[in-house]
Amino acid sequence: MRIPVPEDTALVIIPSKEISTVIIEWHRLYYPFHTTVPPHITLAFPFILEKNWQRKRSALNDCLKTFKAFDITLRELAVFTGSQRVLWLKPEDSGNLLRIHTALAEKFSDYFVASEFEFTPHLTIGFFESDEMMYEAKNKISSEMKPLHFLVDEIVYMVCDEDEVWRIRDKIILG
């Protein structure tokens, strides 16, 4: 995945405030972008440029209105290894995230960048310089973590501003 730059956009799910408060505590320890990016699950990045957003919003709304609100539970930590070491939470969602991502990729294929990686819904907790540091954080969080539940009833459109801070620009209600 490439590093975001100003004017980049994304479609994401942002957990409820109660859940985000818990995740922000972990982000402060392990996520270098915790002051510029809220806790989120990415559905599409990069996505429609802001200058084209209003023209495409109706089609996006039509695509997403077929999906009803659904619950997500975050209870399991996982890791990505390789060029980056990433600790993340695995959403339990009965496949809804994958179905939404697939529908978006089909309807808005011009805005999806080809990737060597299969889409894996996840909520990033942190980035690490070594396996040892990553697994130490995983063990620490696992020992104190309780399952986190929240309702997804909207998809959020965000834009990376000139200060590289991600800002909410719009929300699309599901259903």
Automatic annotation (TrEMBL):
What's the short name of a Pfam family annotated to this entry?
2_5_RNA_ligase2
Please name the InterPro entries in this protein's record.
Cyclic_Pdiesterase
The entry's protein name is 2'-5' RNA ligase
Q: Which organism is it from?
A: candidate division TA06 bacterium DG_78
In the record, what lineage is assigned to the organism producing the protein?
Bacteria, Bacteria division TA06
